Amino acid sequence: MDSVIVTPRLVLTLVTEAERNSPEFEWFHEIRSNEKATWWSIHGRSKSIEDTEKVLGSLLPKNDENTYRVNYAVHMILDSSNGSVEGESQPLILGGRPTVFVGLIALVSLDANSLALPEDLVLPASPAASTLTVEIAYMFLPQGWGQGFATESINAVFDACRRAPSFWAPFSSLYVRAIVNEENAPSVRVMEKTGMTNRGIYEWTGKPVFLAGRWQECSRLHIFGRQMLE
Q: Which residues lie below 8 Å from residue 50, measured CB to CB, with a gap of 6+?
């Protein structure tokens, strides 16, 4: 996968490790500890560095040939009209241009902890056997909301996926799925704008999780999917 992706307004940097006190870890902890950014995260907000490290354990690459994990840090390119302000991250120079961290995008292959879905919401059994399925998740700090950054950066990551077929070897086919709570209307729109197909609604019930400011034990989930390589 590309180590750096540049779009008209953003710079995306591939994160393969994030040791404590590193810039990468600071990015993760900044967004994971932000209540608004993690409003729809089933992991909840990080209340400590240890909380962030625990989440990183499920996101960062590990030495397992059967696991595929891709993480991009999203940085907004600054200009004279949108320079950093007090309380926000200080500019980071990337490619000779000042930027500020605003979000994260993750692609993670399914494992035993992934939500099991009914047959009508997933790939048919035969294609699924030869296809790698990864799940996309993303979050942005409030200063990155309402500007189309999610759509712009996700489209850029999807393009990068298609440019790197060897990364997904031995699989020649790649399918991306997304799970979005019905109440999270902005993310539903982002999925639609990035070409994801809404395969239907899954009525989830289970152990209560703290999500969107309250404990929930049932939710209506939009299941999106898109074939990236075939």
A: none
